[in-house]
Design a protein that fits this description.
The chain is an alpha+beta fold and about 180 residues long. It has seven helices and seven strands, in the order E-H-H-H-E-E-H-H-E-H-E-H-E-E. It has a single domain, classed as Aminopeptidase. The chain has a seven-stranded mixed beta sheet, sandwiched between helices. The chain is globular and about 50 Å long. Bound molecules: coenzyme A. It holds the Pfam family Acetyltransf_1.
Amino acid sequence: MRLVPWTSDDLGRRMNDVLAVFGEAMSYHPQALAVRRGYITTHLQRPHFRAIASLSDQGQLLGFAYGYHSEPGQWWHDQVSSVLDPDARQRWLTDCFEVVELHVRPAAQGHGLGEAQLRALLAMTGAATTLLSTPEADEQASRAWRLYRRTGFLDVSRHLLFPGDPRPFAVLGRPLPMTH
Ligand SMILES: CC(C)(COP(=O)(O)OP(=O)(O)OC[C@H]1O[C@@H](n2cnc3c(N)ncnc32)[C@H](O)[C@@H]1OP(=O)(O)O)[C@@H](O)C(=O)NCCC(=O)NCCS
């Protein structure tokens, strides 16, 4: 297994594999994945796009993560900005790298790949903070939540509802760089 930094072109070339990992990890229906293809294609053009892939020795995609600089005018940035008070907005969103997607194929989960991807991705940005959103869940029972807490992510906003999604989300963040 190896972690490989990807350019936006690299990710675009492996889009079908990315969607397959995404679909497996999130148990998404093919129709939902078709919508994701459109989103991800848009994200490839975003400022300071960074991505990392976990590849098996045979080149199979085991997991991936990507993000970009979070800026006004981006849908997610504006949603999060609207629920923060001015101090929190200043602290978290002034120079922020958004972790947009982080997924590991179920068969490869539980061996530290997700954490390695997250750390490698965050080492590729010079931003002052990072933010992500994740569905609300039992922190002890959710592998994603355990990972975020273990790596120092703090509550920025909880039980947030994004338009078009009935699930409540938490916005979590941490200052960068990660030194431990
Ligand atoms: C969330 C997700 C990316 C985490 O990836 P992962 O590889 O499964 O998880 P981690 O890197 O945290 O694996 C660590 C687990 O392996 C164990 N582990 C074994 N060897 C390890 C090593 N060398 N280093 C670190 N952890 C190791 C850890 O103890 C940890 O156990 P735990 O999950 O019971 O706490 C992945 O589970 C996933 O894709 N889930 C579905 C999609 C999802 O929820 N994505 C995030 C949405 S916001």
